[in-house]
Specification:
The chain is of the alpha/beta class. It folds into two domains: 1-56; 63-333, Phosphatidylinositol (PI) phosphodiesterase (TIM Barrel), CATH 3.20.20. The protein has helices at 2-55, 79-87, 141-144, 170-184, 209-222, 236-245, 261-268, 284-292, 305-314, 326-333; strands at 63-66, 92-99, 105-107, 190-195, 229-233, 250-255, 274-277, 296-297, 318-321. Strands 1, 2, 3, 4, 5, 6, 7, 8 and 9 form a nine-stranded mixed beta sheet that branches. The protein is globular. The relative contact order is 0.11.
C-alpha cells in the first residue's frame, strides 16, 4: 500500500514538474514569437514610413512673376527694375505697355503720366487732377522719354531705390533683359506683357484693341519670342483679338470682380492659358475649378511671405509680386 502510494506520489510530482516545464517552454516560445513579430512590424513600419516620405508630394513649385520688374524695390517698368528682378530669381518679367502718338510700344503703368511716381521734363510734380493731361498717346516718344519716372519718392513703396529714369521701349526691354540674363548665366526669362487700357479710352488714350495687339506682336515676332511671352489684359477684347490672330501665343485673363469663373469664361468665349485674379478672390475651390478647366492660376499681387506659403499650399501655378526678394525668403524657410 505504502509502495503504491509512493509510486503514485512520484508520478504526480513528475507530472507537475513536466507540466511546469511544458508551460515554461510554451511561454518562452510565445514570447520569442511575439518578439520576432514585433521586430518584423517595426521593420515594415520603418520601410513604409521611408516610402511615404519618399513618395509624399512636395509643395507645388510656382513661377515668380516680378510685377513691373521689382516694383517695391526699384522704380516700376524700368530696365534697372527688370535686371534686379532677374537677379532675385524671377522667372517671368511682368510689364505694362502703352502706345505713344508715333506708335511706339513703351512701358508705363498707365496710358498717362501718374502723379504718384512721375516728374515732368522740367522736374516738377504732376497734380493728381492733371494726370490725364499728360496723355502718352498724344505725345511723341521723344517727348515721353523726357519725363522722369524714377526719382520721385513713392509713398506706397518707401524702400524703393531712387534714380533718374525714363520709360523704355518694349523692344529695348526685351533685348536688354535677354542680354543681361545671358551675361549673368541666368535662365532665359519669360515675359508677361499687360495691355494697359482704360474704359472708353480707344483712340483717345490708346489704339483700339486690334491695332494695339498688332503693334505689340510685331515686336514679339521680330524678336522670335512667341513661345516665351504671355499676353494679359482685363479688357477681353484684347484677348479675343489675340486668340483670333495669334492663337499660338499664351493669354492670361486678369479679373478683379467676384463673378464665377465660368461666367468670365463664357463672356470671353474661350479658355485662356492663365486665370489671373486679384489675390483676395483666391480659394482652394477656385484653384481646383480652374485646373479642371485647363487653366493655370496666377494671383496678383502677393506681397507677404505668409500669403506666399498659403497660395503655394492651394496649388497655384505662380504669383505676381512687387517683392521678388520674397522668393529667397521662401527658399530659406524650406526644410533642408
Amino acid at each position: 500500500m505504502f509502495k503504491s502510494l509512493s509510486i503514485y506520489l512520484a508520478l504526480s510530482l513528475f507530472s507537475i514538474v513536466s507540466f511546469a516545464q511544458i508551460s515554461s517552454d510554451t511561454t518562452l516560445r510565445v514570447a520569442k514569437a511575439n518578439f520576432r513579430e514585433a521586430k518584423r512590424q517595426a521593420r515594415l513600419s520603418k520601410q513604409t514610413s521611408r516610402k511615404n516620405m519618399q513618395s509624399a508630394p512636395a509643395p507645388k513649385e510656382m513661377q515668380w512673376f516680378g510685377k513691373a520688374g521689382a516694383r517695391a524695390i526699384m522704380p516700376e517698368n524700368t530696365l534697372e527694375g527688370m535686371f534686379r528682378a532677374l537677379d532675385l530669381g524671377v522667372e517671368v518679367l511682368e510689364m505694362d505697355v502703352v502706345i505713344s502718338k508715333d506708335k511706339q510700344v513703351l512701358l508705363a503703368p498707365e496710358p498717362f503720366m501718374q502723379s504718384a511716381s512721375v516728374r515732368t521734363p522740367s522736374g516738377t510734380d504732376i497734380p493728381f487732377k492733371d494726370e490725364r493731361k499728360h496723355n502718352i498717346y498724344a505725345m511723341e516718344y521723344a517727348k515721353v522719354k523726357q519725363y522722369d519716372v524714377g526719382s520721385k519718392k513713392v509713398s506706397a513703396f518707401p524702400g524703393q531705390e531712387k534714380y533718374k529714369a525714363h520709360a523704355p521701349l518694349l523692344i529695348e526691354v526685351l533685348e536688354q533683359a535677354e542680354l543681361y540674363a545671358k551675361q549673368k548665366g541666368l535662365a532665359k526669362p519669360e515675359f508677361c506683357i499687360e495691355f494697359r487700357m482704360i474704359p472708353q479710352g480707344d483712340e483717345v488714350f490708346h489704339p483700339a484693341p486690334a491695332e494695339f495687339v498688332d503693334l505689340v506682336m510685331g515686336i514679339v515676332k521680330a524678336k522670335s519670342l512667341e513661345k516665351r511671352v504671355i499676353l494679359q489684359a482685363f479688357d477681353m477684347r484684347v484677348l479675343q483679338t489675340i486668340k483670333q490672330r495669334y492663337p499660338m501665343v499664351r493669354t492670361a485673363l486678369m479679373v478683379d470682380g467676384k463673378e464665377e469663373v465660368q461666367d468670365y469664361i463664357d463672356r470671353l468665349g474661350f479658355i485662356p492659358d492663365i486665370y489671373s485674379p486679384y489675390f483676395v478672390l483666391i480659394g482652394k475651390s477656385l484653384v481646383d475649378k480652374c485646373h479642371e478647366m485647363g487653366m493655370k492660376v496666377v494671383p496678383w499681387t502677393v506681397n507677404a511671405i505668409d500669403k506666399v506659403h498659403y497660395f503655394r499650399s492651394l496649388g497655384v501655378d505662380g504669383i505676381v509680386t512687387d517683392y521678388p526678394n520674397l522668393r529667397n525668403q521662401l527658399l530659406s524657410d524650406e526644410p533642408h
